[in-house]
Structures are given as structure tokens and as C-alpha cells.
Amino acid sequence: MAAYLYGNIEITDPVLYEQYRARVPAVIAAHGGRYLVRGGAAAPLEGDTPVHRQVILEFPSMAQLQAFYRSSDYAPLIALRQRAARGSLVAVEGI
Question: Which class in CATH covers the domain with range 3-41+51-93?
């Protein structure tokens, strides 16, 4: 079953975030993931959660998503992202 990583990211340091953005696609691909959404216009329809940069990644399984997130090659990129942005990430199984 596919799994999705959803992020709502507020960029606080665009220069630093660009370094993250340039390096992360290769790590995602190495773990079998791919982008479904990467930025672009977002329009809230319900609720009052602030909408920032939206990201949705698809992985073949939750195990592969978790392996990506917990990998030694992604760990330094997590630290970089957290210095350049704040937000939330959620892992969700699909159908």
C-alpha cells in the first residue's frame, strides 16, 4: 500500500531552504519516493490552519517512507530544513 508524506512548511530563511530544496530530491528518489506536490498555489477551503508551502511525497509503502525519514542520508537535511523553516510533516497510508 502506498504511503504519503504531507508537509505544510513555512520558510523562514529562503537562502538556506534553497540548499535543502536542491539536495533533497536525490535522497527522496533513492528511497523510492517521488513528488506529487512541491510548492505551487494553495487555497484553503475549510478550517483556520495557516497554509504555507505544501509538499506531498509518495512512497511505495509506509516502511519505505519511514526508512527515508530515518535514514542517515536524510538526517543532515532534516537539520538543514529545521533551521530554514518550520511546519508540520505527517505520514499517511493510502489506498
Answer: alpha beta
> Model confidence over 25-51: pLDDT tens digits?
999 999 999 999 999 899 999 999 899
Mapping DSSP onto H, E and C, the string for the chain reads CCEEEEEEEEECCHHHHHHHHHHHHHHHHHCCCEEEEECCCCCCCCCCCCCCEEEEEEECCHHHHHHHHCCCCCHHHHHHHHHHEEEEEEEEECC
**C-alpha cell of 9?**
512548511
- Give the C-alpha separation, 83 to 79, whole Å: 6
Tell me how many degrees the CA angle 47-82-87 measures, rounded to the nearest 5: 0
Cell of 29: 528518489
Q: Which of 28, 16, 38 is nearest to 84 (CA)?
A: 16
Which residues have a Cβ under 8 Å from the Cβ of 52 and sit 6 or more positions away? 8, 9, 10, 11, 42, 87
